[in-house]
Each structure stands twice: as C-alpha cells, then as structure tokens.
C-alpha cells in the first residue's frame, strides 16, 4: 500500500493584514505536520487575502507577499512537507494569481491560474491575467532577496505537475474546478493522482451543493485525490467565505470541514491509499466465471438435478462426488495466469492473486520477460538492431513493436496452457481461452491483433466500459469479491511500457479519448447512424459551452481516423454474445467495409467548413442557453451547421 497523509484547511484571512495572514499560514502548516501530513494546501491568495481588490495593482502588495513567503522558507515550516501557498506574482510585467509549491525551504514550482473568475462578484481580470501557455513551463527569476535567502535563483513557472518517486501532484485554482476543459483532465491522463485546489469561494445560498458535486465529479471518472482549501469569514468586503475545505477520493468525500465556523484556523487531514487510486478486464472475466460457479452451487442446493449432472460431468467428479462449494468448483474449471513483465506493477500482480483466491481459480504467476528477451535477441541477431521503448529514446514504431510482442506471447502461452493443463492434471479434454477486450476498445481498435482479443470466446466483448465498471462495483459487494473494488478504482492501463518516475502508461491517454466519450461516439455512429459530419453537428450541440467547435471537430476527426485505421481488427474479433446496441462486431451486426481512406478527405473538409461558418456566424456563445439550443435543434443541418441534437447519445438505454 502507498499511504499518503494530506492536509487542507480553512483560514480566516484579512485583506492586506499580512501579520495575521502569515501567522495563520504558519500555524496551519504546523498543525498539518503535527497530524503527520506530508502535503498541505491553503486558500487562494492566502498571504494577501483574496479580497484585496485594487490593492492588487500596487507593487507593495506583491512585494509584501514575497517577504512573507521568504519568512516561511527561512524557518523549518516546509521541512519534509510539500506546501502550496497562494500569492500574487508579477512575471514579465504581468500579474498572476499563483500557487507556490514549497518543500524543504525551496520553491519547487509556481503554478499561475489559467481560468479567472470574472462574473457576479468576481473581477479577477481587473487585477490578473490568465496563464494561457498550456503544457509549458518557463524559468522564473526569483527576487534577489528571496534568492539569496534560500540559495535558489530560478524556479519552473507555468502549467505542469510535480512527480515524486511514488506520487504525482498538480494544482487547480478555484474557478478551474468548474471549467469544462479543466486542467485536471489532461493531468489525470498523464498519471497525476493528487489534485490541490486553492480557492476563495464566497457563500451563496445553495452554492455549496454545486461545489461539493463538482469536487466529487472531479475524481469520479478518472479517479484520484482532490484536496480543496478555502478562505473562511469576512476579509474586509461584502462577501463571506464559507470554508468547507474537503478531501475527496475517487468521487467520494472522505473528509469535510465546517461551513460556518468562528475558528481562524481549521486544518483537515486524511490518510489516503494511493494504490486504490490507480483496472483490468481480466478481473471482470474472472468475476463472471466466479459468478457462474456460485449460480451452479445455488441451483444444486435448490435440487436442480440437471445442473448437478452437468456440473459433475464438466468438473470430472467421480465416485458419486458432486460440487458443494463454488471455490472448489472454480478450481476444477478455471485457470488464471498472470503473465507479468518488467513493465507490470506490483499492485496489478497482487490484485490478480487476491481475486483468484476469492474466486478459487487455479492461479499461476508466470513472468514472461525471458521469452520476450529471446524474441528480441533473435530479432537483433538477423537485423542488427534492437528496438527501444519511446520513453527510452525509441520511435513510435519501436514502441508498438515491443508492446505487441508482449501481448502476442501472452496469447500463445494462454492457448498452450489451455491445451496442456488437462494433461498435467490427468484430465481429459481441453480448456477454452477467454478473451477480455470490451466493446469500446473494439470500436476504437485499441487492442493488439492476436493478443487478449484473440480467444475462443469473449464474455465481455460486447459490453461497454461503463457497464463493466458498474459490474465490478456490484460484484465486489454481492459476490463478495472485495478485491474488485480496488480493481475498479485503478486507472485502466495495458502495462506494456516501462514505468518511469515521469511516465505511466494509461489507456485513455494512449487512445486520446475517454471511455465515456467512446460510448457517445459509438451510439452516434451506430444507433443514430451518424457519419463524421453529422456526428460533429450533433456533438456541437451536446458539448456547447464545454468545447469550442474546433475542439469538437478535432475530437471527431481523431475518433474516425483511428476507427478507420483499426476497423480491419473487427474481422478477427473473438465471438461474444450480443449485449450492446452500438457493437462494432462485423460478423452479422455492424456490416461495413474494413478498408477505408483513413484521411476522410471529403468529410473532414466539410467539418472544417462548418467550423468556419460557425465562427463567422458568431452565434456560438449565445447557444449556451438550453431553450435556445432546443429550438435550434429542429433546424436543417444545412442551416447553422450544428445539425439536430442526438439527445440520447449518452443514454445507455437508447437503441434497445
């Protein structure tokens, strides 16, 4: 287990009262360290107070904030604890609202706010600029007195995250929690596990409900830890900041502070298991087999003689014996093999072992690195070249080749064991190899031809990722396979590339799209019969206000490009029972060619023209009003270029 104790806080800060603010920040750090926390987050602009308003335009305000930070770094406050401290910073004559990450009396990174609050009571654009350079870190020259005090000249400034040996962390600031294209989305796909939000959110009736829902949703889909800190009390203006700092894990709030408190300082901490923040389709297939064994035992106990006879025959029971325990039955019928490599994590290995024990399968742990090495040595012998992973300097082609050989070795070994294990245990017959790819992977083509997608039968081949995750949650409780809860919480990863301190392979990052988006694409393509152009038009309506037309266009093009490139894989897809109305199975359900012009030149050119028309029309901003969107939905697709909304594209019940 990777355990991490984190701390967040509510602080009663006063605008421009630097003595009080500094004292509160220091005390909150001391309390966090006393609780054993190694990560601490404070409110937005905590050194100056959030409500300084036009005082932010004064150079003194920023200078005093630096003086306070120097005071903190000159003591032992940041020893062995990562602290995020909020303050204004001027960079190249531009003022930014920043979080400053400090550890062991040094500044690790400065993260400027990227989405400013500028409606209602908020006027952040009056005093600050938004940092617009995504995926970019630049060097920031520290003020001379600060540099001399901490013996550090520069610090990374911009959008990024902090990677330690066993955890990665990143920042969001207040408004960024509520934005459609929130920074945490890309960061989560990069493997970031802990998000730290410094906020200055004032009280308003029913606003807290929205805030808590947003914090839950921030980690519900991608997983992760979300730390939220807030200012509390009145800081000199007309607004009251209502605290409610909290910590959420995988969509559940595990700790929450007070909303209306008279305390100047409230520190909240929680112990997090990071291994629970990190998904295997093998687990689902195994759980289905375990469930079937449980059903067999239940029917035998109810007196079903036919089920009893069949179970005795398949399990090769002798001398009048018959199955009475699902785990004992599973051991006769079900072999599971964990074929790990140097790229496999210990967490995945241990979860596979525990699940096998819970189900009762005959389990093997078989490292295949030596087999992979033999293939690579043979390849090097007759070509003179040895491929490298991309993270080690290799090309994309080399990376794919190295991933595919691991996947295909597993397929060969699985079929070998299926044919020979009955002989090993003095049994007759042979075993079936079960596949473990799902409908969304088939749609995107995110699978290796002739790997785990190639089997005798695939129990989950026509089931969506979202439904599979729901089954995992159900089975963890109702089948009493508790390890499935950890499996469901882990981010999906093929584990075919080396794990590095700054890189973890994740399925959704590799695919360039989330599984939830894949389900929407699948329903629009199959159920609503959308081609690239009409899918773009419909998604413009669906994602209006969340993504710009050009961003929608990029997503649609990306999906159709890889759908076309990988459609040939459907011709050899392992048989599975029909379970999903947007299945791409081309044997009898989804009859389309398997060779495409993957550039889709006509369709993509049409999409580009529609994007230009929408931008020229200037009506995109107005269309965020829901009623207006519904009225426009009945227009012809030739009108505004946005088509008719496929309102059910996210509804798993459509197409039944």
Helix content estimate: 25-40%
Structural class based on helices, strands and sheet pairing: alpha/beta
In total, how many beta strands? 17
Count the helices. How many? Answer: 21
Low-confidence runs (pLDDT<50, min 5 residues)?
621-647
SSE layout and pairing:
Blueprint: E1 3-11, H1 18-34, E2 39-41, H2 59-74, E3 82-91, E4 94-103, E5 106-112, H3 124-127, E6 137-141, H4 144-150, E7 154-158, E8 162-163, E9 168-173, H5 183-189, E10 194-199, H6 207-220, E11 225-234, E12 240-242, E13 246-249, E14 252-256, E15 265-273, H7 281-301, H8 305-314, H9 326-333, E16 335-338, H10 346-359, E17 362-365, H11 369-383, H12 396-424, H13 439-444, H14 465-478, H15 483-489, H16 507-511, H17 515-527, H18 532-542, H19 549-566, H20 601-617, H21 626-632
Description:
There is one protein chain. The protein is of the alpha/beta class. 40% of the residues lie in helices and 16% in strands. Strands 1, 2, 3, 4, 5, 8, 9, 10, 11, 12, 13, 14 and 15 form a 13-stranded mixed sheet that branches. Strands 6-7 form a two-stranded antiparallel sheet. Strands 16-17 form a two-stranded parallel ribbon. Helix 7 packs across helix 14 (465-478). It is globular, with a radius of gyration of 28 Å. The model is unreliable at 621-647 (pLDDT under 50).
């Amino acid at each position: 287990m990777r355990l991490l104790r984190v701390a967040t806080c509510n602080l009663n800060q006063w605008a421009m009262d630097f003595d009080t603010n500094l004292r509160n920040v220091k005390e909150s750090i001391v309390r966090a360290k006393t609780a054993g926390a190694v990560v601490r987050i404070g409110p937005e602009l905590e050194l100056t107070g959030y409500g300084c308003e036009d005082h932010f335009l004064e150079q003194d305000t920023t200078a005093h904030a630096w003086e306070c930070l120097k005071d903190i770094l000159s003591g032992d406050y940041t020893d062995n604890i990562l602290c995020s401290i909020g303050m204004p910073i001027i960079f190249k004559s531009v003022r930014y609202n920043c979080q400053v990450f400090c550890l062991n009396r040094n500044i690790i990174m400065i993260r400027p706010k990227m989405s400013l609050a500028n409606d209602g009571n908020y006027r952040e654009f009056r005093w600050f600029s938004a940092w617009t350079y995504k995926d970019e870190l630049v060097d920031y020259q520290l003020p001379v007195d600060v540099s001399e005090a901490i013996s550090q000249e520069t610090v990374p400034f911009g959008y990024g995250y902090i990677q330690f040996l066993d955890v990665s962390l990143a920042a969001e600031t207040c408004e960024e929690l509520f934005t459609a294209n929130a920074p945490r989305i890309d960061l989560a796909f990069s493997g970031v596990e802990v998000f730290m939000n410094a906020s200055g959110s004032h009280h308003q009736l029913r606003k807290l409900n929205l805030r808590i829902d947003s914090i839950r949703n921030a980690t519900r889909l991608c997983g992760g830890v979300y730390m939220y800190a807030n200012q509390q009390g009145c800081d000199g203006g007309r607004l009251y900041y209502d605290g409610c700092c909290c910590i959420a894990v995988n969509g559940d709030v595990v700790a929450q502070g007070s909303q209306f408190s008279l305390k100047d300082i409230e520190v909240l901490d929680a112990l997090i298991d990071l291994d629970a923040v990190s998904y295997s389709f093998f687990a689902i297939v195994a759980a289905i087999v375990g469930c079937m064994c449980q059903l067999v035992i239940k029917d035998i106990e109810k007196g079903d003689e036919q089920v009893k006879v069949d179970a005795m025959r398949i399990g090769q029971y002798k001398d009048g014996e018959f199955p009475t325990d699902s785990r004992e039955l599973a051991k006769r019928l079900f072999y599971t093999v964990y074929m790990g490599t140097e790229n496999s994590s210990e967490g995945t290995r241990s979860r596979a072992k525990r699940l096998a024990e819970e189900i009762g399968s005959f389990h093997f742990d078989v490292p295949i690195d030596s087999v992979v090495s033999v293939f690579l040595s043979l390849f090097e012998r007759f070509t003179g070249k040895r491929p490298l992973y991309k993270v080690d300097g290799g090309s994309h082609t080399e990376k794919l080749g190295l991933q595919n050989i691991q996947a295909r070795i597993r397929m060969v070994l699985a079929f070998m064991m299926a044919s020979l294990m009955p002989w090993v245990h003095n049994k007759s017959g042979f075993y079936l190899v079960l596949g473990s790819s799902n409908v969304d992977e088939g749609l995107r083509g995110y699978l290796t031809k002739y790997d785990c997608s190639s089997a005798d039968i695939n129990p989950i081949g026509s089931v969506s990722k979202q439904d599979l995750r729901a089954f995992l949650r159900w089975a963890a409780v109702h089948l009493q396979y508790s390890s499935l809860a950890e499996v469901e919480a882990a981010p999906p990863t093929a584990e075919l590339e080396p794990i590095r301190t700054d890189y973890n392979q994740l399925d959704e990052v590799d695919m360039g799209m989330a599984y939830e988006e894949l389900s929407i694409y699948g329903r629009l393509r199959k159920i609503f019969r959308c081609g690239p152009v009409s899918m773009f038009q419909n998604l413009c309506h669906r994602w209006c206000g969340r993504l710009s037309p050009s961003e929608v266009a990029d997503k649609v093009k990306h999906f159709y490009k890889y759908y076309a490139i990988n459609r040939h894989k459907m011709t050899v897809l392992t048989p599975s029972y029909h379970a999903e109305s947007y299945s791409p199975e081309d044997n009898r359900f989804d009859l389309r060619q398997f060779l495409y012009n993957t550039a889709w030149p006509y369709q993509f050119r049409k999409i580009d023209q529609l994007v230009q028309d929408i931008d020229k029309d200037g009506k995109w901003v107005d269309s965020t009003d829901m009623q207006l969107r519904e009225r426009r939905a009945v227009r012809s697709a030739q009108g505004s270029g946005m088509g008719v909304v496929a309102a059910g594209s996210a509804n798993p019940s459509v197409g039944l």
